[in-house]
Amino acid sequence: MAKDSINEKTLSSQNNQDNDAVEAVPTVLGGRNGDSEASMEVIESAPVAPQDEDAALSAPETTISEEQEVTTAPTEREVKSDRRELVKSASLVALGNLGSSLLGMLRQSFVASTGPLISGPFIASLSPAQKFNDFIVNGSVPGALIPTFNDYAEDREALRRLVFTIVNLVLIIMTISSVGYFFVAPWFTNTILAAGFHAQEKLLTLQYTRIVFFSLLALGPFAVLQAALYAQKEFGWTAFAAAAYHAGIIAGAIFTAVVGDHLFGGLGHYGLAFGVILGTVGEVVLLIPAMRNQRMRYMFVLDLKHPALRHILKLYAPVAFSFFFSACVAFLDQFLTTLTPCMEVMRQVKSCGDANLSAMNFATLLIQFPGGLVASALSFAVLPTLTTYMREGDIERFKSTLLLGFRLGLLLMIPAAAGLIVLKLPIVTLLFRHGNFTPAQAVVTATVLQNFAYQLPFIAIDQLLISAFYARKNTIIPVAVLVLSVMGYLAVALPFWRTVGVPVMALANTVQNTLHPLILLLILWKTIGSLHLRGVLPALLKMLVATAVMVAAAWGLQFGLGHLHLFASSPFISSLVTVIIAGGIAAIVYFALVIAFKVEEVSMLKGAVMAKLGKK
């Protein structure tokens, strides 16, 4: 691959000691010195001309001072300050994500109530717009936009010019693409999106996907503005703005349920698709107060010669490939899922493509709930800090911050995975078993959820490791590892999708997302030396013991509550009581044990929450 040639070129400029440590490990992007502890940002100020930028790119590789080569361990005060800042930022992002995730669950509950004949086509129709947005702009947020915008943090006017150059460029691309997709949508829908659907479902999918694709006119600019605010450590509005997307779809689902076939010959069914448009516009509107806070009013500018654009393209090129590759795998996954056979509980149904695709989507949402609260919040909170440490050449604080993220992620994701596995059916029934969502569909969704849940602890580690590589201006390694991890997905999915069906599709996804962080961790260790992972082991052991006791408590309570006569009357009531009592007591047991075991990160989280509530 191209990364090998890049590695050979840049590592030759390292000193002998560095070469001995990382000789065979590609850790570089676009000619940057990925291994040097004194790694610097590419662009120091906006007025740098393109030819000067090239000189700036090569300068850090040959002018590393002795003070930068020898890093000192961070003082106790610095470590505590780092921890407070990380936990505060992550807590703010998590708080915003909590509101968004709760609305997301409510949204999916409304979508599920429409039944698979509507929810299946709607869910299938979302993929093209989401994947195209990820490929064009959204995927560049952590790896290219945030680090580059962070370089301009001290020059607000230059940052504003850069940000709105990209916003306007993205808006032009999305407009042209939306019009073009309108004409290719019939072929794409029949061949890939809805291959296993009935003719009527295929037609509805086509109509939905044409409408939804125009949401890119808001989704694309939103991603750029979000990155600019994250680079300024403006975390509040950006996290809460995402809730507008779910609110729009909920409004569309209510419109569909109320109006349905009663308006203009069934046009009410398009409420879901137009709800996506409403939600994406709402996302941008909710960012306006944050943009005003940062003095970043809209600017009609298209500076295609801006030196930062070339730098962003260099950083994002490997990531763009990864999103293109991921999109291909995702569409393959969707194609196979729509053709998977029915599980035993749904043998009375002739075709289960729509139900199986819906189950995968609903289970994915439940996995994304803790993922958004913990993994995404930590990764976005830690990226600016890691980038700063790499620019300053402070490798020890880089490692300590990353290790802190590991411990915080595992503290919350391990019990989250266990809780979803033990209480999977009550949770699915509580959230989705309404309207036309049947008990058999609940069983299928719960099975998929269990096979998804095993990956949760690894997702937390994965997001932090990707941020670590992005902070080092290295987007090649995560892409290369993605290709390797997809091999694991294919090894599980392809041999068994026709026989085992949708459960194996979820398990294949888990294998992929487990392999990715494990390989990244090994490469990072080989690149920058020991990450001091032994320091995580005592806390990890305490978390596992507390989780085991929590699982026993949740299972025992669920078993006992199932024998009460109250639970025979209403599945909703039984599920609600089970989730509240069994889930609540199990959570109390877990946190009581980790507090008793004196796991340090618990007190840090408590302090952050109390500070947000104004009590500390």
TrEMBL record:
InterPro entries: Lipid_II_flippase_MurJ/MviN, MurJ. One of its GO terms (biological process) is peptidoglycan biosynthetic process. Residues 8-19 have a biased composition (Polar residues). One of its GO terms (molecular function) is lipid-linked peptidoglycan transporter activity. It is found in: Cell membrane. Keywords: Cell membrane, Cell shape, Membrane, Peptidoglycan synthesis, Transmembrane, Transmembrane helix. Its main location: membrane. GO terms for cellular component: plasma membrane. It is a multi-pass membrane protein. Residues 1-81 are annotated as: Disordered. The keyword Ligase does not apply. The keyword Membrane applies. Pfam families: MurJ (PF03023). The chain crosses the membrane at residues 162-188, 208-230, 237-258, 270-291, 312-332, 365-387, 408-432, 477-497, 544-566, 572-597. This is Putative lipid II flippase MurJ. It comes from Dictyobacter aurantiacus.
